[in-house]
Amino acid sequence: MTDARRRHDPSARGFASDNYAGVHPEILEAISLANGGHQVAYGADVYTEHLQEVFRAHFGETAEAFPVFNGTGANVVSLQAVTERWEGVVCAETAHINVDECGAPEKIAGLKLMTVPTPDGKLTPELIDRQAWGWGDEHRAQPKVVSITQSTELGTLYTPAEMAAICAHAHERGMVVHVDGSRLANAAAALDVPLRAISTDVGVDLLSFGGTKNGLLLGEAVVVLNRDAVRGIPFLRKSSMQLASKMRFVSVQFEALLAGDLWLRSARHANAMAARLADAVRDVVEITRPVQANAVFAILPADVAERVRKRFRFYTWDESTGECRWMCSFDTTEEDIDAFAAAIREELS
């Protein structure tokens, strides 16, 4: 046994990110089953071929999925596929592409992020128009894409009607709509709608579909819903270093996630744990955001947060206010929630 394995406590739970969770046992089983024999590399394997049918069952017959390694890669490939070098992407100021990807969309894709402050992480047609102007002005990056996150970085949700309004507004202006869907499963589960109801059916052109935060070992997918809006994804995926040689091991995970109801079971559970956590501490802390998916935002004094963090990992979202973010995942248990809530209460007292 390695030293690292000796130091690892498999019972430990963190609330810093749903990326902290391990791999769902059904996903691990699928990887193991795909491990026999040889398959053609770079996506010409039987698992990746079948994966197209799986994605089309959720997103419609025109959908086409391109597995990639990670969420930043999915976003960069997606945005490159719908922009020229002089064009820009309108997004919320809090968007992951703006604050958590080390400038990758701008450095790798060569585009301009045109950010808008939002009170709840959500864009609206009116907010989009703060940046969607100046077409034909050679001195200004040309607005081309509206990128929204579902669920948002602040844990809030767009309703299907809100997404449809954004898509219609963007399309009227000749713009394309991209969804960062790293937690799209959590959003669909919370809204109690199919995945296509917050993507294909409301007019989204392409999305970055998340797997890692919902139980995969690794892997996200660029999902094209409007083929007329994109170009060159196979070449962009390769040149962006997102083409897996042994792609079957990414694709089989998505098959296990989406062919049945694993995606929904896992997302519903994570959402339910977040609701349980909010209810457990609501009387002793200020819950600062609506708890709509698998995130809870709350205020903790800095000294209290540091003491609680010695037992449970989590991040302080805003140092100036003491706002913290607590994320729940597919493997968060009721006992985890109760122990975390008890620790918060203990340190507050």
Automatic annotation (TrEMBL):
Pfam families given in the database record: Beta_elim_lyase
Names of required cofactors: pyridoxal 5'-phosphate
Gene Ontology molecular function terms on file: lyase activity
GO BP, sorted A to Z: amino acid metabolic process
SUPFAM superfamilies found in the cross-reference section: PLP-dependent transferases
Highest taxon of the lineage: Bacteria
UniProt cross-references to CDD domains, sorted A to Z: TA_like (cd06502)
Record-annotated Aromatic amino acid beta-eliminating lyase/threonine aldolase domain positions: 15-299
Keyword field: Pyridoxal phosphate
Sequence similarity: Belongs to the threonine aldolase family.
The protein's name: Low specificity L-threonine aldolase
